[in-house]
Amino acid sequence: MRYQVTHRTTYTYDDEVTDSLGVAHLIPRDLPWQQVRGASYLVELAPEPTDLSTSTDYHGNLVTYFQVVEPHRELVVTGRGAVDVVAPTAAEEHLARPWEGCRPIVEPTAAGAWQATDFALASPAVPMHPGARDYAAESLRPGRPVGEAVTELMHRIHADFSYDATATTVTSTVPEILQRRAGVCQDFAHFTLAGLRAHGLAARYVSGYLATDPPPGRQRVVGADASHAWVSVWLGEGEWLALDPTNDQWQNDRYVTVAWGRDYGDVPPVKGVIFSEATTSAPTVSVDVAPLPADQPVPATDQGDRR
Amino acid sequence: MNVLRDYVAGLHQPALVPAAGSAVLPGVRYDELVEPDGSLRPGWKPLAEVAVTIRAADLDRVEAEIARFLADDGVTYSRPGQRRAPWRLDPVPLVLDAASWKALEVGLAQRAELLNAILVDLYGDQTLLADGVLPPALVFGHNGFTRIMARSGAIDPRPLVLSATDLGRDADGNWRVLADRTQAPSGLGYAVENRRVLSRVMPELHREADLHRMAPYLWALRSALLQSAPEDLADPRVVVLSPGSHSETFYDQASLAANLGFPLVQGSDLVVRDGWVLLRTPLRLERVDVILRRVDSAWSDPLELRGDSQLGVAGLAEAVRRGRVRVVNGLGAGVLENPGLQASMGAMCEHLLGEALRLESVPTWWCGDPDGLDHVLSRLDELVIRTTDGTGVQITELAPDLLRRRILAAPHRYVGQQRVPLSQAPTWTRGEARPADISLRTFTLRYGSSYRPLLGGMASIRDGDRGIGSKDVWVLKSSAAEPDQGLAEVRPMTAVRSAPSTMPRILEDMFWVGRYAERTEDMVRLVLAAHVLAEDYRTRPRTTGGMSLEIMLGVLASLAGRTSDDLDEEFRSVLLDPERPGSAAQSLAALRDALAGVRDQLSLDVWRVFGITARAESTLRASPHGHAIAESAGRMLAGVLSLQGVTASMIRDPGWHMIGLGQHLERSLQLCRLLRVVTARRGLEVDREVLTAVLASAESAVTHRRRYRDYVRPAGVLDLLLMDAENPRSLAFSLDQAARHLAAQQASTGSTRPERLLDELIAEVAATDTAALVAIGGVDRPHLTAFLDSVEAQVGRLGDAIGSLHFATGPRPRPFGALQHRPVVEEGAS
Predict the structure, then answer these.
(1) From 2.60.40.2250, 2.70.70.10, 1.10.10.60, 3.50.30.30, which CATH number describes the A2-85+267-297 domain?
(2) Is the Cβ pair A21, B272 closer than 8 Å?
């Protein structure tokens, strides 16, 4: 599938901001199952930044650094471009392996284990939590194939937790999520990570988009037209299985992968610092993931906003 | 009897009780002074002749002198959450001979080389992890591992410039590494001060010892920092980044900055523009090339690291990654402070340097390793248990069950370290030299292409894990011809970069130095004037003098309130209680805080002020007699006045002018408050008595007598204190001086708001007629009241205007907002 993505974050302030520095994870990664359409995928700012540069971060994501020094009361950060996606696949023999063999700290000499270790430890937003461990234990029964075990965990979380945008803020902790049994996609992801890592599995937080515009007869899925988050579990060597507990499905060709890290804190779409007396207002975010026919030329980025 | 002989004799007494809290029996420790056979260690042999003459009385005297010198220099250290405490230095140095030092030196140089190589590897290719030399969980699970600095293309090849290593000596006399300090090593400033003080109080011993002086090492450090600049710049700008004057080791930071001749700055003094780090000065932003960092990495950049940090510089990490500024030590160097690394130090040395590790660490077991875990759990009572990231220092106090559970819950976060029997050295305690545990902090610097340890260091006197004092460390030369620090070629510090930078924050501190110094002086003078009246009239309330006393006490109360009916108690409280608003003690404490913020800008003599006032305060506390009040107040006054002797020798830069500006504005304000007593009329006799006290408080009694004889009347007093352009204590004079100091500021143009406000005020005072002010309307002098109101209000506005023009550093950085991720769907896909 080919998608044209527009992800716009608008910050409005009640006073003038004279200096604004930011870091954005808005440009999707190039992956075996995902090709970014060349250099036309860009991060744009209004007002015009004096400094704008994109480089590759520790986890291999594209990260954009910017600074705006023109006095402003509104800052708009837009990630925009086109991307081709197919459904990622995982080899059957990896999925069939007992989950205990996919613990990098227990099997440190396994191929790829040392890199995967970074995703098997607690991280700032995903602490080791006994509640999450006990919850995941029901699915991670001894000797069970890893693909089956983590898929069942996904099903259970989807069934037991309700999607509720009002239940949580960006700072929800794992114990809060467990107690409320509700949250947004990012909370589903953090809770899943806590459960998997508590048992020694390596799992990363994936940030990206999920396309809507469902084919006829299919239901519209939650989390559409917003930035989305899901997880990806290490199956050994370079293999990972990406699954979305919010929507109870494995990642398919409707998912655009932007960036991954240990948790949300490694890859927020936009974060920054302002120098101002202003009281920050809540930003507005608008995301549009529009399917494009594969033979249609990619629209030039300067065609203007849809708004 | 000789002190050191007593010490030796004591060591050979059969010990009746094993040392408390120690698993090690006395006698198996290494003694730094004597060999097991009772003869002196080689380092002490050349000093024997002088050393044997040291008597208890000498050391008592020296101990007191050390305390006084350290107080005069304002040397402090504060434990987290506690008040600043004086630094402690033992009079007996740790002396090491050239031969035994040599082996240590080679080991330390190798260690720094190794630590640098580990940093380069962990933030670069990570071969240590890929090849299984180091367990990945040990590194990835440590909060010092700073992922934003681990990006290809952004690797600093020399991230380690200055490191410190803590060593303990085992029973066989071998030094073992207790810990490495690489985040932002502290102690060099204290070591310099220790040497300065000890060389003054033990001159004979110091002369006798042919020891390595420290100065060339500081020159080398300065040169190494200058050479750290990213490009080949002729005149790179180096700054020392401090967390601020409330930091634990602020003295160390400020002293080091002053010794190196680099400005001490805080995060708010720096900004990032287009990837360059710039220093705010009143006129422009100046590029910074090298930052000696004393702020921990995690707090160094609110954009990419801890977003709640007010100590860092937003955008610093990006500037470093682009190679536009060098941070020393590199951001992320704290990853080396993980005690778990000690377990793999030998293997890492083989892997990275291809040679055997020379300086062994204390035996360490990492619990993330199954064998290590077994070992630690089976010896919980013998080992020191630490977390890998240094948090939870108190864990050794946990009950064994709880500790075991904690370790098992996250084994990779814990290590066990063997308790080593530290060496002991004579330490002067309550009139006698007793053996005390010591550890040695050494410093190693990248100079040119190699690492060089400081020939010297700082020894800590330890009580268990806690340092309770310090010792100077003397490393002797192998021959008199050996150059200090083995650095023959290093050039002494010559021209330090022209004027020290005057950042808004520094100007602000300087301004308040002037204001609080003047406020302290004025309050002490007022107490002295009131006390004179009190001594004569306190028992005669209805007399002229008694009424005058009440009036002067009223002035005191208007500035500092009234807390006691007992006059002596009241005076003592105003002089001594720093918690009392408006008291002299409070102003003095505020003066000290303001001075601490600009410590590197000022001569050390400035701290003598507090040495003098502190001694005056303790005398007053110790004496119950009334006369002690006047005596101590007099000495406090002398102390505060001595500050002017220090500022007289300062370079006439904007900072100096800011002190003058603050002082003269404060004097104008205090004068107006004092002269309020002249607005009322109470009969000739009382008025005369009050006016005399006012003249004394305003330090103009002598001038008045010379000009008006003993004829004291309101018009004359007001003329002298308000209008007389030749009386340095007058309002007219103070405002005129303030105008000169203001004009000397870099941001002054002749027409800035503060200048206009001050010009208007000066014109108003000049146009005022004293005769009109003394004019009586009803029971008091309404014109004088209105005049004083007006001057006070204008000085207040002027102070605000100076603040917003000269001290403004702009708003503090804040994160974009906490809710940025919650999606607000505004439009759907078509």
Answers:
(1) 2.60.40.2250
(2) yes
pLDDT at A222 over 70: no
Query: Mutual orientation of helices B684-697 and B544-560 as an angle, nearest 10°?
Result: 40
Q: Do B136 and A171 touch (CB under 8 A)?
A: no
At the topology level, CATH places domain A92-252 in C8orf32 fold (3.10.620)
Alpha-carbon span B808 to B280, nearest angstrom: 10
Residue B425 burial class via C-beta count within 10 angstroms: exposed 0-12, middle 13-18, buried 19 and up = buried
- Distance from the B307 Cα atom to the nearest Cα atom in chain A, whole angstroms: 8
Q: In angstroms, how far is the first alpha carbon of chain A from the final one?
A: 24
What type of residue is B366? W
pLDDT value at position A297?
A: 58
pLDDT in tens, A44-66: 999 999 999 999 999 999 999 99
A167 touches chain B (CB under 8 A): no
The pLDDT value recorded for residue B813 is 79
- For residue A223, is pLDDT > 50? no
Angle at the Cα of B25 (from B21 to B30), degrees rounded to 5? 105
Q: Are B167 and B94 in contact (CB under 8 A)?
A: no
Interface of B with A in 387-446 (CB under 8 A): 409-410, 412
pLDDT of residue B15: 47
- Pick the closest to residue A306 from A286, A283, A282, A285 (CA basis): A286
Band of the pLDDT at B827, cuts 50, 70, 90? very low
* Residue B134 vs residue B209, higher pLDDT: B134
Domain borders along chain A are: 2-85+267-297, 92-252
Q: How far, in Å, CA of B158 to CA of B451, rounded?
A: 11
pLDDT in tens, B360-403: 999 999 999 999 999 999 998 888 899 998 765 556 667 888 88
CA-angle at B471, arms to B470 and B475, nearest 5° = 145
Whether B410 sits inside 8 A of A128 (CB atoms) is: yes
A109/B contact by beta carbon, under 8 A: yes
